[in-house]
């Protein structure tokens, strides 16, 4: 299990740890494709399960693009002095395997705590498998 002493990597800022959704744009498909191809850091709990949070009726898996982003999140939570275990996973694995395994509506929150850089990948068709997308029932057969 890899551990990182996060306070060694972060700038001493204390941004808001709540994810701020970005408006969808024509650039979102490019961002989603890049996320799916990129290995991200997923902090884990004592049972080696991904760290989760509930917000807006959705369960979110925290993911970070690098050590500095994870460190900013830890500091924003007031937990920058402890070691944070994490796993490195491809974004595609998070969206296609981890999200369905949660068993409730779930998405991925990338770089929470990094002001202006956080991105939410909600559980909707085109981002997660249709079987677990919250809007799949609304769309109906095509």
How does this structure look, described?
- The chain has 142 residues and is α+β, with helices and mostly antiparallel strands.
- It is 25% helix and 25% strand.
- About 10% of the residues have low confidence.
Structural class: alpha+beta
Unreliable sequence segments: 9-22
Order of secondary-structure elements: EHEEEHEHEEH
Note the total helix count: 4
How many DSSP E strands? 7
Overall 3D geometry?
globular
Integer-rounded radius of gyration:
15 Å
User: Main sheet: which strands, in order across?
Assistant: 3-4-6-7
Strand content: 15-25%
User: Biggest β-sheet, characterized?
Assistant: 4 strands, mixed
How much helicity do the residues have? 25-40%
- The average pLDDT is 84
Separation, N- and C-terminal Cα atoms: 45 Å
